[in-house]
Amino acid sequence: MSATPEATISIPSPVSALSLGPNDTLCVGSEDGSLRWYNLPSARVVKAAKSLGAEIASITWQLSKKNEPVAIWIACGRRVICLPADLQKMIATADDASASLEVGEDDDDVLNEARILSISENGRHLAFTSDSGSVGTIDLASHVITRMKSRHNTVCGSVKFIPDRPSELVSGGYDSALLHFDVGQGTILSRFDISAPPPSEGVSLSPPFVLSVTVSSTGLLAAGTADGRAWIGGGGEKRPSSKKKRSRKWEGLKEDEGIWLQVADGPVVSSAFTASDRLFTCSLLGTIAEYKVIRDDDGSLRATKGWSAVAPTLEKVNAMTASHSWVVIGGFGKDGRGIVQVFHVT
Q1: CA angle at residue 336 from 330 to 341, to 5 degrees?
Q2: 24 SS3 class
Q3: Do residues 52 and 64 make contact, with C-beta atoms less than 8 angstroms apart?
Q4: Contact 226, 206 (CB under 8 A)
Q5: Smallest Cα–Cα separation from 228: which of 272, 266, 176?
Q6: Mean pLDDT lowest among 10-24, 34-48, 189-203, 260-274
Q7: Is 233 left (phi over 0), alpha (psi -120 to 50) or beta?
Q8: Which residue of 20, 114, 265, 326 pairs with 157 in a disulfide if CB–CB is 3.0 to 4.6 A?
């Protein structure tokens, strides 16, 4: 794996969202409300969408049972917009959307700029969050919107469905809390309130706001915080060798079954599992790190750092997306223009 980008893509407006789809297709969202598609590792635009109405806050792919793209869902202002994957236009607009749903609760409630859309493993529901701290779902067949009965005290910046449990999801907020919901009942099943660590050298200037959440295919959770840490929760992990019976509910927020990693000097803006034991994190200033998450003979979690890189030319990173082959980060450079940097990983 190289610490040098395989490709660098420049666009007029700062990058605000990224998503990798099937066949190495990359979708890039910008603060000016535009989208661009690329077939990696090429830096040539193959399709675009413009005038979507507001900054693109989040992007996620809806796939068929054969893992083929059906549609792409976009969080944009107070709306969630769906564009068909087979759209033939080279440049699409909001008029080409197959669905446009308003999810903001009032005029002051907009979808925030974090990774805030997630589609359930069975493809039936889309989860979203808002600046008010609420967490909701959309039935993708009927487009009925349902909100959870409890919420975060402030901005909710991340949400993920739990693999193999389509009726459960976990969210992270700027209130330093992780909430685990029953989607059908709309109720909280468990929560983890994160405390700041004792200062070792001076005082940390950043509270442990939860900025990103990712869940592996086996139920491991990783949460990145604004004070440069990542928490890996192993209480909900499915282990073939474990004699423990499958719990009726996911138990990934058990504090005593997790470990903390100091992964950066500044906020950890994104985290992503690319395999059940392979975690990537990225800081606000572009430090990317890979961790191998394993269990010792006694069953305790351990994470060892592997590949790492510092993204050149980026002043600030707003988003990261990763797959088995690629790690892609995006933000803006010194001139304020958007930059995407693509790293090839093996």
Answers
A1: 25
A2: helix
A3: no
A4: yes
A5: 266
A6: 189-203
A7: beta
A8: 114
Angle (CA) 126-55-156 rounded to 5° is 50
- Structure tokens that stand for 144 in this block: 């009925």
- Say what the pLDDT of residue 111 is: 47
Determine the straight-line distance between the first and last CA of the chain, rounded to whole angstroms.
6
Rounded to whole angstroms, the Cα distance separating 322 from 59 reads: 13
* CB 72 within 8 Å of CB 27: yes
DSSP state of 94: G
> Beta-carbon neighbour count of residue 300 at 10 Å?
11
236-281 residue pLDDT tens: 999 876 555 556 789 999 999 999 999 998 999 999 999 999 999 9
All residues at 6 or more sequence positions from 81 whose CB lies less than 8 Å from its CB, including other chains = 52, 73, 74, 94, 97, 99, 100, 101
Q: Confidence band (pLDDT; 50, 70, 90) for 115? A: very low
Residue 201 has pLDDT above 70, yes or no: no
- The pLDDT value given to residue 244: 58
| CA 212/CA 115 separation, integer angstroms | 7
The residue with tokens 């090429």 is 42
Show the tokens assigned to 245: 């019976």
For residue 143 the two structure tokens come to: 């487009």
Question: Can you tell me whether residue 42 is helix, strand or coil?
Answer: coil
Band (pLDDT 50/70/90 cuts) for residue 5 is very high
**Residue of 284, 346, 291 lying closest to 320 (CA atoms):** 284
**Mean of the per-residue pLDDT values of the chain:** 90
- Reported as a single tens digit per residue, the pLDDT across 136-184 is 999 999 999 999 999 999 999 899 999 999 999 999 999 999 999 999 9
Nearest to 30 by CA among 346, 318, 341: 318
The dihedral of CA 290, 297, 262, 179: what is its sign?
Answer: positive
Asked if the peptide bond before residue 41 counts as cis, ω within 30 degrees of 0, the response is: yes
